[in-house]
Amino acid sequence: MSDVDVIVLDIDGGAMLADCLAALRAQSHPPARIIVFDNGSNVPTTATGAEVIRSETNLGFTGGVNAAFTRVSAPYVALVNNDVVADRDWLATLVAAMDADAKLAAVQTIIRRDEATIDGAGIDISDGTFRQLGHGLPLGTPLPEAWGVSATAALYRVTALGANVFDERFFAYYEDVELCARLRESGWSLRVIPEAKATHRGSQSSSRVDAKYLRTRNRYRVARMHKGVGRISTLLWEDVKRGGSPRGILAGLLG
Questions:
Q1: Where in the chain are the domains?
Q2: CA gap 242, 236 in Å, rounded
Q3: Taking the CB of residue 187, how many other CB atoms lie within 10 A of it?
Q4: Distances from the Cα of 104 to the Cα of 10, 28, 181, 182, angstroms
Q5: Is residue 205 within 8 Å of residue 95, measured between CB atoms?
Q6: How many Cβ atoms are within 10 Å of 47's Cβ, its own excluded?
Q7: For 6, which of 10, 78, 116, 129 could close a Cys bridge (C-beta 3.0–4.6 Å)?
Q8: What's the CATH superfamily of 4-203?
Q9: In which residue ranges of the chain is pLDDT below 70?
């Protein structure tokens, strides 16, 4: 029996979800179960070869993952966005890394945007903000070590996560940064394997939520919750330059 359960959140993914699931079913290291959480799709999700859990309303990325996590029984759980297509040995690569290091709580590979470009190579907090390391750079570009892993497509050790994976107050965006901070503070390590093993087509469901507000609010929430993870002054200056949500800034600083 495999040692990995996979969680995929879906909102009206259609053919995109089908491609994601086909790649997961074709893994050289097959998962024990694929759990698809239908997070309030207009048309109820159907998924061949997967267990489908449906919510009539959108619980957010945090609530959807946490609800699906209650069904996990394997020692490792993979989180995969429905717009990700994993290479055949993606899961085998991650499991090998986790098996080799008992202190490792989470691991990801480099994720492509296309055949020539990096979408993300982990989370970078070195400048006081939160960024996808290497985003938009050519594949093969030398990169520094990442601080954390992105929940776009990653493998986690279940014993490191506790009862819930994410803080549901975040709803969506930067919840994976908060999780990384929490894991590090608990003594776990995180790793990005310097090989491209999955392709991310880009966020396909953000139009269903107020993404600008959530992105702005949650950055300040992370910085307030975890000392040394993000700098309020730097985040404020970035939001001034790029036009962050004033309501999100206020909510993040006060709530």
A1: 4-203, 210-255
A2: 10
A3: 9
A4: 28, 22, 14, 13
A5: no
A6: 19
A7: 78
A8: Spore Coat Polysaccharide Biosynthesis Protein SpsA; Chain A (3.90.550.10)
A9: 1, 202-208
| Cβ–Cβ < 8 Å for 189, 161 | no
Helical (H) or strand (E) element with 3: none
Q: Using N-to-C axis directions, what is the helix angle for 246-254 and 232-242, rounded to 10°?
A: 170
Rg over alpha carbons for the chain, rounded to the nearest Å, is 17
Length reported for the chain: 255
Q: Which of 208, 61, 184 is nearest to 122 (CA)?
A: 184
Give me the pLDDT at residue 41, please: 95
In which region does residue 243 sit, left (phi positive, over 0), alpha (psi from -120 to 50) or beta (all else)? left
Question: Left if phi > 0, otherwise alpha if psi is -120 to 50, otherwise beta: which for 166?
Answer: beta
β 104-114/189-200 pair status: parallel
Separation of alpha carbons 70 and 68, rounded Å:
5
Give backbone dihedrals phi and psi of 89, rounded to 5 degrees, phi first: -105, 20
